[in-house]
From TrEMBL:
It comes from Nocardioides seonyuensis. InterPro entries: NAD(P)-bd_dom_sf, Sc_DH/Rdtase_CS, SDR_fam. Belongs to the short-chain dehydrogenases/reductases (SDR) family. SUPFAM superfamilies: NAD(P)-binding Rossmann-fold domains. PANTHER family: 5-KETO-D-GLUCONATE 5-REDUCTASE, ALCOHOL DEHYDROGENASE, PUTATIVE (AFU_ORTHOLOGUE AFUA_3G03445)-RELATED. This is SDR family oxidoreductase.
Length: 273
């Protein structure tokens, strides 16, 4: 999909990867609707981007995991820039403690990291099938292909996000609908930096598990790779190429891979409670 002239929605767009994706889409000529729960920060980001791209930026504060909020965002995006051609499901929440997560924390992780994608696709795909085109991009994580040391909620919800994106591609990929799934390791975002600076030992361990595994990339670098994938109609986006080799090793010998991850987790034990 050539994004120039297209109408795009990006969730979780007040900062981090979402704001960077919005900016990259604008640089390539799209009209972009930003949405996020952080209304004040969202407005600041939209004003900053709008100054460089007048008339092509709109912002709608909303909860990306709520169907009615999504309806409002899609309606406003269509009014501002035309029927939505590209949806970037980027909003996410970080992981919580090992097996100490409450039911509410599990529900939040699954609602935001998975079901927000399902609900958006449910609203968009029927219209895209009628039009014969559309593209759904989701931000998952390398944790969705491998795992996340320290957080079951993050690992499980991101695995599910990857699985849903795969299902979308398999089911609708021959009917004009493109799907891309972003699976980075460390990206220089507030979420990662919060873990790095946390007084909580397990949060620091989770952050170290990410930063020790590879380079920490800028959101702009990751955004360029994602939008490239959208334009080239590619599914899997791996900003850290070593993840592909890790996945191959996992598939080749699952027991050996688990043993290696156990050793790696133990090597981080100094920071654990």
């Amino acid at each position: 999909m050539d994004v120039a002239g297209r109408s795009a929605v990006v969730t979780g767009a007040a900062g981090g990867i979402g704001a960077a994706v919005a900016e990259e889409l604008l640089l390539r000529g799209a009209g972009v609707t930003l949405t996020d729960l952080q209304a004040e920060r969202l407005t600041e980001t939209a004003e900053r981007l709008g100054a460089d791209h007048p008339g092509r930026v709109s912002a709608v504060p909303a909860d990306a995991s709520r169907t009615e909020d999504l309806r409002t965002v899609l309606s406003e995006a269509s009014r501002a820039h035309g029927p939505v051609d590209l949806f970037v499901a980027n909003a996410g929440v970080p992981g919580t403690r090992e097996l100490g997560a409450s039911d509410a924390e599990w529900r939040q992780a699954l609602d935001v990291n998975l079901l927000a994608h399902v609900r958006a696709a449910t609203l968009l795909v029927p219209e895209w099938l009628e039009r014969g085109s559309g593209h759904f991009a989701s931000t998952a994580s390398a944790a969705g292909l491998l795992t996340q040391i320290g957080s079951a909620t993050y690992s499980v919800s991101k695995h599910a996000a990857v699985a849903f994106a795969e299902w979308l591609a398999v089911t609708y990929g021959t009917r004009g609908i493109g799907v891309s799934c972003l699976c980075p390791m460390g990206v220089d975002t507030d979420m990662l930096n919060h873990g790095r600076q946390s007084e909580d030992a397990l949060e620091r361990t989770m952050a170290r598990a990410v930063t020790d595994a590879g380079d920490v990339l800028s959101p702009a670098e990751v955004a360029r790779l994602l939008v490239d994938a959208v334009e080239q109609d590619r599914f899997l986006v791996l900003p850290h190429p070593q993840v592909a080799e890790m996945v191959r090793r996992k598939a080749a010998d699952h027991d050996r891979w688990i043993a290696g991850m156990q050793r790696y987790a133990d090597s981080l034990a100094d920071d654990r409670p």
